[in-house]
Amino acid sequence: MRSRFSAFAVGDTEYLLRTWHSSTRPESLDLDSDQRWVRLEILDTAKGTESDPTGVVEFRAFYRHGGQDDDLHERSRFVREGGAWVYVGPLPLR
């Protein structure tokens, strides 16, 4: 999760696509160059250890866009694909 946040922060679309599960990965990704990701707060995790095939991360990612501060709150599902953790998609917030 932290590496994907960093990739959003620096605009590394190749890394983001590479770490997206093949079943949900978009063909391309167009990031908004005016959006500045500034901070990541991990709120909760479930599973996701070295021996787990799946994991969940709940986070809040803070950004600035158009002079306004805002945040994205998400529970994300991750799975191992080819030995690496990849992002599958969001889950409902509790």
From TrEMBL:
Recorded source organism is Asanoa hainanensis
Task: Pinpoint the YchJ-like middle NTF2-like domain residues.
Answer: 1-88
Specify the taxonomic lineage: Bacteria, Bacillati, Actinomycetota, Actinomycetes, Micromonosporales
Q: Which residues form a coiled coil?
A: none
What name goes with this protein?
SEC-C motif-containing protein
Specify the signal sequence span: none
InterPro entries referenced in this protein's UniProt entry, alphabetically: NTF2-like_dom_sf, YchJ-like_M
